[in-house]
């Protein structure tokens, strides 16, 4: 299955076609996923104890994984999933824009890139206006008194 928990997916067929939601659970054995706000069913719960009341509960039912597509965070389009090996790790990649779909890997890559960018920068301190004035006054006093 190319869909994982916490992926944003778009339903491509059926009653909820076009609706987007977050994947709550996956079931690879049955090839289904439960998507937030999609395939809502009503279940009747009977009171089990004397102090409870019977009620009708709404919940999400499983939908077949072939009826959803992963939405790319970068391009915002529903896309098929490709697999690529980056830095020796197999990751899911967007077919349309080539962005990495694995959130854990993309966060890790951003953190590594951030540390690599920060390391080469050297800190250059600019002289503040106050220190520049002090140096100018010291030079002018030394010029007036004749000291070097």
Output the keywords.
single chain; 148 residues; SH3 type barrels; six-stranded antiparallel sheet; two-stranded antiparallel sheet; 10 strands; elongated
Architecture overview:
The structure is a single chain. This protein is of the alpha+beta class. It contains two helices and ten strands; from the N terminus they run ββββββββββαα. The protein has a six-stranded antiparallel beta sheet, with no helix packed on it. Strand 2 (about 20-25) and strand 3 form a beta hairpin.
Task: Give the topology.
Layout: E1 8-11, E2 20-27, E3 32-35, E4 40-45, E5 55-60, E6 63-64, E7 68-71, E8 78-79, E9 81-86, E10 89-94, H1 103-118, H2 129-145
Antiparallel strand pairs: 1-2, 1-7, 2-3, 3-6, 4-5, 7-8, 9-10
Please outline what is shown here.
With 148 residues, the chain is of the alpha+beta class.
